[in-house]
TrEMBL record:
Source organism of the structure: Halalkalibacter hemicellulosilyticusJCM 9152
Cofactor: Zn(2+)
Annotated metabolic or biological route of this protein: Porphyrin-containing compound metabolism; protoporphyrin-IX biosynthesis; coproporphyrinogen-III from 5-aminolevulinate: step 1/4
Binding residue positions for 5-aminolevulinate 2: S274, Y313
Name of the protein in its database record: Delta-aminolevulinic acid dehydratase
Amino acid sequence: MDLSFKRHRRLRKSKAIRNLVRETHLHTEDLIYPIFVTEGTNVKNEVPSMPNVFQWSLDLLDEEVQSVVDLQIEAVIVFGVPNEKDDVGSSAYDEEGIVQRAIRQIKQNHPELTVIADTCLCQFTDHGHCGVIEGGTIVNDTTLDLLAKTAISQAKAGADIIAPSNMMDGFVVAIRTGLDQAGYEDIPIMSYAVKYSSAFYGPFRDAAHSSPKFGDRKTYQMDPANRLEAIREAQSDLEEGADFFIVKPALSYLDIIREVKNDVGAPVVAYNVSGEYSMVKAASEQGWINEKEIVLEKLISMKRAGADLILTYHAKDVANWLREERGGHEHA
C-alpha cells in the first residue's frame, strides 16, 4: 500500500521529544503575585471566596513576602484595604496609607523584589467607584489629579512600577506627567489598558472591599463584546507613555491579548483574575478537575496568546509545580 501523508506523531512519541519541540514555555519569572494588605495587627484573614488568599496586616506581611521570595517569584502587586474611606478616597494618596507603608516595608526587607502598586481609588472611596462623584456621575478629569497624587505617593514610598487600574480617559498621561514632574521619570507605568466590565471580578471585590455602592462600572470599563475598542484603548495608552499593557480578565479575552501584543509591540500582562481563580479552586475542592493540569494549561494559553507576564493568584502554586517538574530547580 502506497500511502502519502504527514507523520506528525513522530514529534510526540516521548516526553523528551515533546519538550524539544515545545513552542510555548511558562517560567516562574513570568509571574506576578497579588498581595492584599490591611490595617490592624495579627491579621491573616482568608478571603471567603478565594481559598488560600489572605488579607495581611503589616506585622505578619513578611511571612507572605518571604514565601514569595523563597519560590523565586520576582514581582508582587500590592492592593490595600484601609480602615477609613471617604468620598474622594484620600487614603489612596496618603503617604502613611496602608499601601504606602506596605511598599516601604517590603522594599526595606526585600529590595530585590519588584513591587508594583495598584493605583486606583475604588478600595478607598466610600461609594466604591474608581473616581470622584459629582451629581451621581463619575467625573473624569477631577479624578485624574487624585490618581496622579496617588501614583506619586506610591513612587515616593518605593514602588518600582505604577499600575493604574481605573480606566479613566487620560489616566496614563496624567500619571506620567505627575511622576515626571515629581522626579520619578524612571518609574514605568503598567497600565490596565484593556479592562472589561466583567462578571469575573466578584471575589476580588470581596477581598478588597471594593464593590460599588450604587450602579456599576460600565461607563468606564469596557463592554465584553468589543474588540476594536480594546485596540483603541491600548493605542491611546501607548501614546500617553505606558510601558506595560494589562488585559483583564485573561481567560475569556485571549484573542484580545494577541491583538494588543501584535498592535502595541510592548510587554503585555494577562491578568488571570479572581473569578477565574476561584472557579478552579471550587471545582478542585469538589474533585471534579485536576487543579495543577488545569492551571498550567490555562496559563500556557495566556503565554501562547502573547502575554509576556501573568498576574495570577495561582502564582505560588505554579512556582512550586514548576520547581517540582525540574527536580527542585526552576530555570529559564
